[in-house]
Amino acid sequence: YLTARVVDRGQRAFDELRREQLRAGSNALRQNNELRFHQLDVSDEQSIRAFIDYLTLVHGNHSIDVLVNNAGGVVRQNDHIVRTCDADTAAQCVQMNYFTAVNMTTWAVPHMRRHGRVVFLVTALAHLGIFSGDLPRVLTSDELTLAGLHIIENGFVSSVGKGTYAAYGFPPMPYAVAKAGLIAYARMMARITASDPRGLLFASVCPGYVKTDMTGPYAPLTPEQGAETPV
After folding, report:
1. In this structure, what DSSP letter does residue 124 have?
2. Confidence of residue 150 (pLDDT cuts 50, 70, 90)
3. Which pTM does this prediction carry?
4. Which end of the chain offers a freer environment for a tag, N or C, measured as fewer CB atoms within 10 Å?
């Protein structure tokens, strides 16, 4: 399934991918495993629940093979990327890049099939070297819980509002901090589900600097090249 918050944009992307399948004579078509489109707003829990209910109704309770958490982005104002690190920008960035993916994954994992895969698209900017103090150790700790990770992400937003983020070891980089949270979440989920008989895999990957609406036309990689790593 290809999903999108905005139906028109999602439908255009679906139509283009469908045409590519037809031109290539894709094996997916011969195997009745064709691409489908469904509206999904990962920032809206009701939308997530409706999508999961639909999958369960049509395909059964354990119907998800792979979940790719690709939704996210940067904060824009008047069609320009906001590059300042203020409380509002931090809150929006953490919500759209961290909490939405965690919430989507939380709903999806109970419906994963055996050997299911959950992939988070992150950025090379979200490395541990951007943090200081105890944060690198805490983010990689086997004792880290989801509640603790939420505290870190919310703590970043709060400290930005107070102007104290540097004292707590955070950089002035909301997008990177949010994506670092996803990397820690993927590690945590791999640890928590290690004994799950379904043999689930969680991975956070960087697609590289890809031409998208977020990065603009000067990024060196095409979307097809960027898809190689997560696929």
Report:
1. T
2. very high
3. 0.88
4. C
Closest among 177, 190, 175, 180 to 105, alpha carbons compared = 190
Q: Which of 98, 165, 168, 175 is catalytic?
A: 175
Q: Is 165 among the catalytic positions?
A: no
Pick 8 or 32 by higher pLDDT.
8
For CA atoms 129, 134, 137, 140, give the dihedral sign.
Answer: negative
Q: Which contacts qualify for 42-49: CB closer than 8 Å, 24 or more apart?
A: 42/5, 42/69, 42/71, 42/100, 42/101, 42/103, 42/104, 43/5, 43/95, 43/96, 43/100, 45/103, 48/103, 48/104, 48/107, 49/107
| Residue 95 CB coordination number (10 Å) | 15
Percent of the chain scoring above 90 in pLDDT? 68
